[in-house]
């Protein structure tokens, strides 16, 4: 079994308040230019799915849908972008759902908040 992981690193402004930090009179964690986030997109396939060129999918063909998601996640604060509460959990699920039709055998999407060291993974529910 193989797993391919495609990564993109970008800055994103989540825009949610931090009530626990506010209650403790602590400053917000998010820098003014946003959190640094590494998005990882993983797909899996078996030996029997390798084609004549020795690969399952040309990863160049996956750039457009992945870059669409990155553009969406970096265009403005998430609180202005999404109709739902943009927790990292909800945004990871949105990203997975957005990519699922374009990426064969998509297994997971991770949003790694590099700024604070918290990783959120949404994986294939099957």
Q: What brief labels describe this structure?
A:
126 residues, alpha+beta, four-stranded antiparallel sheet, 4 strands
What do you see in this structure?
This protein has helices at 19-23, 63-74, 78-81, 88-100, and strands spanning 2-12, 35-45, 106-113, 118-123. The protein is an alpha+beta fold and 126 residues long. The chain has a four-stranded antiparallel β-sheet with strand order 1-2-3-4, with helices on one face. The radius of gyration is 16 Å and the shape is elongated.
Q: What's the quick description here?
A:
The chain has 126 residues and is an alpha+beta fold. It has helices spanning 19-23, 63-74, 78-81, 88-100, and strands at 2-12, 35-45, 106-113, 118-123.
Task: Give the helix/strand layout.
Blueprint lengths: L1 E11 L6 H5 L11 E11 L17 H12 L3 H4 L6 H13 L5 E8 L4 E6 L3
Antiparallel strand pairs: 1-2, 2-3, 3-4
């Amino acid at each position: 079994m193989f797993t391919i992981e495609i990564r993109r690193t970008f800055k994103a402004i989540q825009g949610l308040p931090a009530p626990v930090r506010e209650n403790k009179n602590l400053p917000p964690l998010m820098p003014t230019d946003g959190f640094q986030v590494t998005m990882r997109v993983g797909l899996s396939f078996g030996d029997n799915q390798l084609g004549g060129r020795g690969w399952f999918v040309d990863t160049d063909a996956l750039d457009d849908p992945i870059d669409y998601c990155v553009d969406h996640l970096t265009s403005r604060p998430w609180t202005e972008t999404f109709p739902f509460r943009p927790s990292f959990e909800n945004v990871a699920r949105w990203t997975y759902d957005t990519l699922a039709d374009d990426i064969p055998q998509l297994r997971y999407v991770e949003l790694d908040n590099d700024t604070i060291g918290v990783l959120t993974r949404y994986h294939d529910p099957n």
